Amino acid sequence: MGNIKRIVLTGGPCAGKTTALIKVIEHFNGLGYQVFTIPEVPTMFSQAGMNYLTDNKGLFYEGEKATLEIQLALEDKFMKMAEQCVKPTIIICDRGAMDISAYMKPEMWEDITAKVGTSTRELRDERYDAVLHLVSAANGAEEFYTTSNNKERKEGLELARELDKKVINAWTGAPHLRVINNSEDFDKKLNRVLKEISSILELPQTIEEERKYIVEVTGEIADFNETDITQTYLVAEPGCEVRLRKREWAGNRVNVHTTKKRISETEMIETERQVSNNLYDSLLQQADPYRRTIHKNRKSFIWQGQFFELDTYLSPVDNLVILETKGISRHEDIKFPPFLKVIEDITGNTKYYNYNIALK
Questions:
Q1: Collapsing DSSP states into helix, strand and coil, what is residue 219?
Q2: Whose CB has fewer CB within 10 Å in the chain, the N or C terminal residue?
Q3: What angle do helix axes 106-116 and 57-82 make, rounded to 10 degrees?
């Protein structure tokens, strides 16, 4: 895509997308980017008379199929426009194609995508440069949840939480999915959106440590997405870390090549690209001979509006379970779930960096 980045801004009801879109336009226009925003297609259809809650199965099917067709057509037309821009360009999609799948049975989604000439793999794994999921205020920030700012929104808290889960499940497996937590300060949530987009644009980022803990699982984990991760470090120049990661879940596979390069003591540039299975196998020939491959099981989940990743290491070490927060700022209290027991805070402890765990 060159100087064009196509990014999905999604999330559950009352997540702050509308405000975030305004912030994104103002911020990146000010940095010299051309910013296009694609409106939320289901809202357009609802305002035009489409009832997505209809009992008429034929109408529902044709409405959902038309929703996907218009979504893809709008994105493709804006991509053609972006190709004519002199400035580097960002296309922000107010929800993306996979959001549509969250509101129907998998069998219908497969039928519709086949008729439209696409697939889940293409839409989720290949179409977008990144997907930012803003967690609904109904999950962990209930005092800010409201339906008054959107006349199409009629759900209550419980349904809003359920819709939030369905949307994130629909995008699970996307190689560049970021989950934006609820914060005690909404401005911090918006700033995280700007930070993630800046990272996608490969702008220098302040080095920030996610908080990490060695934990013990003491109960049943609620509502998680599970992936199997194989991580290999490649030979790289000094000051640069190159990682090749294979993620597998439910018969799916995505490979991502990541490069992290420090440009100062406090800043780094991180770039990611998806690679094919054949290129993955070829890149393995560049494996760092001084580091072993890491194999771990990951369970990702949201608890009271905060996003966590729970990694159980299988090799080269075992009996190690690490909980990592995602996007929870230093001043915020972590809402540890009751099914985990914290053994040790290892935030900033380089011994537990994956890069060092892999050392022979």
A1: coil
A2: C
A3: 50
Taking only the tens place, the pLDDT of each residue in 119-148 is 999 999 999 999 999 988 666 555 555 544
To 10 degrees, the CA torsion angle through 350, 131, 263, 254?
60
Q: What's the pLDDT score for residue 1?
A: 45
Contacts of 175 (CB under 8 A, 6+ apart): 125, 247, 254, 256, 272, 274
Residue range 297-327, pLDDT digits in tens: 999 988 887 889 999 999 999 889 999 987 7
Sequence length of the chain is 360
β partners of residue 344: 214
Q: What is the pTM of this model?
A: 0.76
Bridge partners, residue 232, by sequence: 244
DSSP state of 271: E
Q: How far apart are CA 204 and CA 270, in angstroms?
A: 8
CA gyration radius, the chain: 21
Listed residue (354, 233, 246, 247) closest to 287, CA to CA:
233
Placement of tokens 């700012």 in the chain = 149
d(CA 77, CA 89): 14
φ and ψ at residue 269, rounded to 5 degrees: -115, 130
How far, rounded to the nearest angstrom, does the alpha carbon of residue 268 sit from its chain's CA centroid? Answer: 20
Higher pLDDT, 181 or 129: 129
Q: Residue 269: which region, alpha, beta or left (left: phi > 0; alpha: psi -120 to 50)?
A: beta
Residue 128 near residue 73 (C-beta atoms within 8 A): no
User: Mean pLDDT across the chain, nearest whole number?
Assistant: 89
Q: Which residue has the tokens 């996608």?
A: 200
Name the residue among 156, 26, 161, 163 with its Cα closest to residue 101: 163
